[in-house]
Queue: 2 jobs
Job 1
Amino acid sequence: MNSPLLPIIIPFAFAILLMFAPKQLMFQRIGAMIGAILTVGASVWLLQKVATDGIQVVTFGSWPVPYGITMVSDMVSILFVLTSSIITLFAIWYSYRTIGVGREQFFYYPGILLMLVGVNGAFTTGDIFNLFVFFEVLLMASYLLSVLGGEKIQFRESIKYILVNVVSSAFFVITVAMLYSVVGTLNMADIAQKVSEVNQPGILTAIAIMLLVVFGLKAAIFPLFFWLPSSYSGPPLPVLALFGALLTKVGVYAIMRTFTLFFVGDIAFTHTLLLYLSVATIVVGCIGALAVWDVKKIIIYNIVIAVGVILYGIATYNDTGLLGSMFYVVHDMLIKAALFFLVGIIIYITGQTNLKKMGGLMKHYPSLGWLYLIAAFSLAGIPPLSGFIGKMLLVKGGFEAEQTASSIWILLSSLIVLLSVIRIFVYAFWGKEKETTPINRSVYWQLWIPTALLVALTIVYGVGADAVMPYMAKAAETLANPQIYIDAVKGGQ
Amino acid sequence: MEILMAFVIGFLFFAAIYLILSKSLLRIIIGTGLLSHGAHMLILTMGGLGSDAPPVLADGVSNSSMADPLPQALILTAIVISFGVTAFFLVLAYRAYQELKTDNIDEMRGEEHDE
Amino acid sequence: MKLNNVIMRTMTQMVFFIIFLFSIHIFLAGHFAPGGGFVGGLLMSCAIVLLLITFDLKTVQNLLPINYMVLTASGLALALLTACISAFAGEAFFTHYFDYFTLPLLGKTELHTAMLFDTGVYLVVVGVTMIIIQSIGGDE
C-alpha cells in the first residue's frame, strides 16, 4: 500500500547514509549509484503496478482522505518519476569524471539524491501544500548544487537564482492561502471536486492565474523565463543537465496537473491564455537559441522552447494534444540530458564554451560527432527518432482544436531548433581544426559511454513508440478525465 | 479584525518589496524574510479569525469555537522552510561577499561572453 | 572573539545547563502542550551559541566534540525509520502508535512513536543550526 512512496524514500535513505561519511570517495560514488539504480528499479516496478492495478494511493498516518496528506501515483506521475530517476542515474555516472573530487567530498551526491527526493515527491504528491514542501526540498538541494565548488560565477548567479525562487515560493504560499480560503481544502482531488461543484467563479480563475505565475517561474515560460539563461550557465555540466532536464519539468508538471484537474471550468480564458503564452515562449526561446554563441546557452534556450511546446499540448486540451504533451515531455527530458552531456564533452575537449573558437572536432572525434548529430536530429523531431511522434501528436491536437496558425508555428519552430543545434555541429565539428590542449582519451570514453547509452535510450523510445504508447495513452486519459483521478483518491483507501 | 490584518499584511509586503528592490544584499535578505512573514499572516487570516479556543476537543470547546488547526500547521511548516532558506541565503551572501568583495547587487551582473 | 569577562563566564556555566534542561522540558511537553522537537532543538542550539559567545570556537569544540553533520544525519535517519515502522507493519506510512506503560518513578506514562520522530527533529534542528552558525562564525 505504501508503493507510491518507494521512489521517494529510497533516494532519501541513501542520501542520509552518504551524509555519514562525506570524505570516503568510493563509498560516496558506489552508494549514490546503488541508490539511483534501486530508485529506477522501484519506479519500473511501480509503473507495472499502476499499469495493471490502476492508480496507487496512500494517505500518511492512516487518516481519512481529505484530512491526511495523500500521495498518488497515477500514470502521469509515475512516467515523470521514472524518467527523472533514469536521468539522475546517468548524471551520477557522468559526474564521476567531470565534477571533481572537491565537490564529491562535499555532499555532492547527497545533494543530487535529495534533489531526486524533491522531484519525485513533487510528481507524486496529491496535496497542494505538500507540493510546496517538495518544491522547497528540491530547491534547497538545487541551491546547494548550484553553489558547490564556490567559483565566482557560481556565487553571482546562485544569488539571483535563490532570490527569484524565494520570491516565487512566497507567492506560492500566498496562493495556497487564497485557495484554502475559497475551497477550504488542500487535497488536490478534493479541490478538483469542490471547484467543479461551484462551477469555477471568477475568484478561482484569478487563483489559477496566480498559480500559473508561480509554476511558470519554475517552468520558465514567457515572460518569466528571464532568470533561466544566466542562472543555468553557472553550475558545472552534470548539475546543469539535471537542472535542465528535471527542474523546469517540475514546473511543467505542476501546470499540467492543476490546469487539467482544477481549472477546467473556464477553458475559454485560462487555456487560451496558456496557448498564447506557449507560442510566445517558443518565440523567445528561438530568438535566444539563434542569437547566442555559447554552446551551453544554445541548449539552455532550447529548454525554453521545449517548455513552450509541451505547454501547447496542455493548452489545446484535447486527447491528442495531451497525449502529445506526455510523449514529448518524456522525450525532452531524456534528450536534453543527453545534449547537455554531449556539450559537456565538447567543452571538455576544447576547454571553452564559445562556439566561434571551436572547429574541426570531426577529424579526431568522429564518434562524438555522429552521436551529437543523432541527438540533434532527435531533438528537432526527425522521424523515426523520438521527437517526431510527440510533435506530430501535438500538431495534430492543435489542428483538432482549430488552432491552425499556432500549429504551423510549432512545425516551423522545429526547423529553428534544428538550425540552432546544427549550428553547434557545423562550427564545432566542421571547419578548420583549432588547437586544443591534449586530453586524456580514457576520460573521453568514460564520458562518452553514459552519453551514448542515454542517446540509445531515446532512439529506443522513438523506434519502440508502439510499446510505450499504451502507457502514454493511459496517462493522457487520466489527464483528460479528472474524474478518474478524483475517484481513485476519494474512493480508495 | 480582517481589515486590520489586511493593512498589516499589505504593509509587510510593501516593506518587503522596497527592501528586495534595494541594492544591498543584506537588505534583500531581510526583505525576503518580511515577505514570508506577510505570507504567513495571510494564511492565518485566510484560515478565518475569531475562534480562539485551542483545536483540541476538551470540555467547553465546540466545533464552532475552536480555531482551525490547519493554517497553523501550514504556517509552522512554512516558517521552518523560510528559516532554512534564509539561513542558507545568509551564509551564501557572506561567502559571496568574501569572494566577490561586494554586497552590491549592481556589481554582480554577469559579463557577456558573446561578441 | 574572546570575551574575558568573569561574570559572563561564571553565569554561562550555570545558565547553559538551565537552558539545556528547559529545552528537554519543552521537547517532552510537546505532544499535548506547546513545545516539541523544533522549539526544543532551537533552545538547545541557543545554549550552545551562548557558550560560543562566552568562550571561543575551539574551547567549545573541546567541550562538546560533536560532528554536527553526523548529528543531522542521525536525526534524519531516526525520523525516517520511525516513519517507516508502520510501513513495515503493513499500514500507511507515518501511522502513529501509542500505548500506556507503567514506568519506575513516573508511574503510568503514555508513550508515542511520534516522540521518536520528534527526537529526530530535535537532533536535525540542533545539527543544522550549529552548522550554519559555525560556517558564518567560523572564520574571523
Job 2
Amino acid sequence: MGRYVIRRLLQMIPVFIGTTFLIFVMVYAVGDPVNAMFGDRAPDPATAAQLRAEFNLDKPVWQQYLLYMAHIFTGDFGNAFNGQPVTELMRTAFPITLRLAIIAIVFEVVVGIALGVITGLRRGRPVDSSVLMMTLVVISVPTFVTGTLAQYLLGVKWGWIQPAVSPAAPVGELLLPGLVLALLSLAYVTRLTRTSISENARADYVRTAVAKGLPRSRVTGRHLLRNSLIPVVTFLGTDVGNLMAGALVTERIFNIQGVGFQLWQGIVRQNSPTVVGFVTILVIVFLLANLIVDLLYAVLDPRIRYA
Amino acid sequence: MTQTQAQSPPPSSSGPSPLLQVRDLHVEFHTRDGVADAVNGVSFGVEAGETLAVLGESGSGKSVTAQAVMGILDIPPGRITGGEILFEGRDLLKTPAEERRRIRGARMAMIFQDALSSLNPVLSVGYQLGEMFRVHRGTSRKESRIKAVELMERVRIPAARARANDYPHQFSGGMRQRIMIAMALALEPQLIIADEPTTALDVTVQAQVMGLLADLQREYRMGLILITHDLGVVADVADRIAVMYAGRIVETAPVGELYRAPAHPYTKGLLDSIPRLDQKGQQLNAIKGLPPSLLRIPSGCSFHPRCPVARAVCRADEPPLYEVGTGRASACHFWKELLDGQ
C-alpha cells in the first residue's frame, strides 16, 4: 500500500508538469495581456515594454514557465495585473467554492443514492420510470438553463431566496446554487446506483443474507448497498474535481465570487497569472481526488489489493 | 395394489408429526414465454436426525422446492399456488413474514452451492458468521466475534482466530464451504437444507465436507435435506431418497432399497448412467432425450417421452404415487414389472 501511494505520487509529477505547461502556453499564446490591460487604447510603447519586463513577458515562453514554476514552489503565484497577489484571490475564492462543492456533494450522495436505491429495488415500477424520466430531463437541460430558471422563479418571482449570493457566501445562501451545481451529477449518481443495486440485488450473497433471516433493512443497508456503492464512490471522487472547476457557470449565475468566478474574470481580462495559478491548483485537486478514489476502492472492496 | 393419492403424505412419514412436512406443494414461475410449472404437487417429510436426499436433474424443481421451504423464493416471478409447508406442526405459508424471518437462519438454515458467490465479498467471514448471533440473539459485537471463532473451530478451520478477519476470497473452496456450513449451524437449527453443497468442490474435498456435514448433523440431531444430482454423494450419507422429475417426486425409498431395486424407470436410468469400475470401456447408458420444458410438461406421466417401458396409458393417465413397499412409493404405472424384473 505505502509503495503504491509513493508510486502514484511520483506518477503525478510528469502529469502535473505536462498539464501546467500546456495551460501556460495556451494562456500566453492567446493574446497579448499588456494590450488587453489598456483596452481599446494603444499602450504607450515605453510603458508596455516596462510592464513586459516586470512580468517577464519579454522572455521566451519556456523560460517564463520555469520562472513561474520556481515561484510557485515558494508559495508565490505572482500578482494579477492589477497588482493584487493571486494567492490573495485564492484565499477568498477557494473556501467559497469548497463550501459550494461540499453542499453539491452532499446533495448528490444523499438524494442521488437514495433515489438510486429506491428505483433499483423497484425496477420497472412507476417510481422507477418517473425518476428515470426526471434524470433524463436533468441530463439534457444545461446548467445555465436550470440555474437561471431556479434563480428567476425562487429568487425573483416568488422571492424565497436572495437571487444573488453576497460576497461572504454563507452556507444558507449557497443551498440553491449547490443544488443547481449538483443536479447533473445527481442524475448520474441516481442512474449509476440504480443499475448497480438492481444488478447486485440478484446476487447469491443477497439471497444468503435473506436466508440468514436478516431484516430487510439490514440485507439492503449492510449487504446490498455496501457492494453496490463501489462504482458510485469512484464517480463521486472524480466529480469532486469537476465541481471545484465546473462551478464556473453556476457561480456566474448566482454571482458567487469563487474559483469559477475568478477564473472567468481572469480569462475575460486576459489576466494570465490568475488563470494559470487557479488552474495549477485545480490540477493538483484533480490528481489528489483521483488518488484518494483509488485508495478508497481498496477500502471498499477487499478483493482489490495494491502492491 | 395399494394406492395413495399424490396429495397424501408419503408412507414413510406416518410417525408422530415429523419436523418438516411438505404437502402437495405447487410453485409456478411467470416468465416472458408463459407460466412455468416448477413444482407440481410435491409431498415429503423429514424427521429430526434424518437425512433426506432429493435427487434430480437441473430444472427438476429440487432447488425451487428448497427455496419455497426456506421462504427465499423470488416472488415475483415465482408464486406458490398451493400446498402446505408444516414446520414443527405450523404452516409456514400462513405464517406472517416477520415471524418467518425469525425462523429463517435460526431454526432452519440453508447451505448454498457456490460458497464464493454466496458469501458477501466485502465483509469478513467473522462478521458474516457473527451476524447470526447479533441479529437473532442480540449478542454484542465483541461476543459474537468470539462465537464466530468458535464456529470456525467447530468446522475445523485451522487458525480460526486469525482467519476470522479474512475475507471469503482469501479462503480455499473447501474452507469457504466449511464457513457456509458453520453459518448454517450457528444457531443450531432443527433443519438444514443443503443445496448441492459439494458440487463446486474438488472430489477429495467433497468427501471431507460431506463427512463433516454428516458428523455435525448426527451430533445435533438435525433434519437434513440434501439436494443433489450426484448419486455417489447420496449413497453414503442419506437415509431416504426422493427422486424428482419435472417438478414431481417420482420415487421415494430408503437408500439401500432404491439402489438395489429402483421402482421407477427414471431412477433406473439414473443408476444405469453412473460409470462403473467393473465395466470399464463400455458405453454409458445415458437416459435418452432431454428433461421437458417446464412450460410444456408432457401429458400423463411426464417421463413417458423418454421412458423405455412407456405404453399408451402413460401418455394419457398421470400415475399417482403408488405405495410399492414399506416406506416406498413410485409414480409409475408399471412399478410391479420393474421390481419383478430385477
